[in-house]
Amino acid sequence: MSGVTSTAAPVRPRTAARAGLLAFLGANVVAVTALFAAGGTSDSPLIGVGRLAGLYGALAMACQLLLVARLPWLDRRLGMDRLTSLHRWTGFAVLWLLLAHVVFVVFGYAEVEQHGPVGEFVQLATTMAGVLRAIVAFVLLLVVGGVSARFARRRMSYETWHFVHLYTYAVVLLAFAHQVAIGQSFTGSPLAKAYWWTLWLGAGTAVLSGRVLLPLWRNLRHRLRVTAVVPESPDVVSVYLTGKHLDRLPARAGQFFLWRFLTRDRWWQANPFSLSAAPDGRTLRLTAKAVGESSAALRSLRAGTRVFAEGPYGAFTTLHQRRPNALLVAGGAGITPVRALLEDIAGHVVVLYRVRTPRDAVLLPELHTLARARGAVIHVLSGPSTAEGPHGPLLGAESLLALVPDIRERDVFVCGPPGMTSAVLRGLRRLRVPAPQVHAERFSLAA
């Protein structure tokens, strides 16, 4: 069982990660601004603004690569959901900065050449080396940005969204080639070119390492395979896995993997499922509800099926525990990481398990067994989403305080459907539970 000493770390893991990202961004903003200044003045102030927007847009694009590289140090401290959200907003910043780059450069050259903006755009595209590549990159970026908008993302499968998103790498290559070939800050400065190459090679290496080399190495090392498939209820199933050297797999209770079951009809699908038991160095277990074709098909897996797993991912772990005791709040599929955390977390624990009906409370016998073994308290809160108890909504501020009077003195881990999670977080804010003690993670691949 993990322990929490009385002396807290001087810097919280999440704070350290945020500070590291801000330091990286700040240092490179200063470097890019210096490159722009060293490149000399432009023929028009509009061109100068466009150049600077292009440089900042390219820097933001490099930061995007870093955010989705799935580097273990960042992921354990921030979680994939926060990194994905940062990546999404950085993507919109890239889109607007590069749009500004195009508009200001075109209007600037139109002013200098005394042409109309449309004619100048056509002339630049057809006569200046590298501009046509940049236009293709910008069009691809618009397509990727369009499918990343919430209204579009909700209407397509993850696999389709992911395939379209791969065009971002073509955007990166085309934009980089365009800048190094004709960018005023680079054409006459070997130092500027060396910095730009270093920045982009570093970002590319991070992606290659985190998303390709590390998963390949771990799977070659651990060689996971299915050992058993156990129904937990009519629509919930647990899958047990084993492999080699699992005691060296850096997985923690509360984390999740992207699982690929290497059968003829499933090898190309990567599905995020949390560990539903704390890793013990010998086996791993995931538990999933049949809410779609992918999770429903888990029942048909056979013992011996090879598994390719990417991860572990997520910051929903005891790494962030700061108080001696804890409150775990779960709903729906969120019970799987919470059940694993109950094995691993320190101190006295209260579990609030929100279900629609008592029949939906999967893994409840295991939870009661664990609770008895460690003196934890479990409250199963059942009823429709509009249900209320003696103190109002079942997970409202007043109900939370009635169930857990010392809630302000506990770390609170929340995992469940978005509506439930948001309601709990609102209640915690009303109760003035310190933000550093609140931990919530949405296991999202494409926020």
How would you describe this structure to a colleague?
This protein folds into three domains: 13-217; 223-313, Translation factors (Elongation Factor Tu (Ef-tu), domain 3), CATH 2.40.30.10; 318-440, 3-Layer(aba) Sandwich (Rossmann fold). It has helices at residues 13-38, 45-67, 72-78, 80-113, 117-127, 131-148, 150-153, 158-165, 167-182, 184-187, 190-222, 293-296, 335-344, 364-374, 397-403, 418-430, and strands at 225-233, 236-242, 256-261, 271-274, 283-289, 307-313, 325-331, 349-355, 377-382, 388-389, 392-393, 410-415, 438-440. The longest helix is centred in the N-terminal third of the chain and has 34 residues, at 80-113. 51% of the residues lie in helices and 16% in strands. The chain is built from 16 helices and 13 strands. The chain has 447 residues and is an alpha/beta fold. α2 (45-67) crosses α9 (167-182) and α2 runs parallel beside α11 (190-222). The protein has a five-stranded parallel β-sheet, sandwiched between helices. The chain has a three-stranded antiparallel β-sheet with strand order 1-2-5, with no helix packed on it. It has a three-stranded antiparallel β-sheet with strand order 4-3-6. It is elongated, with a radius of gyration of 25 Å.
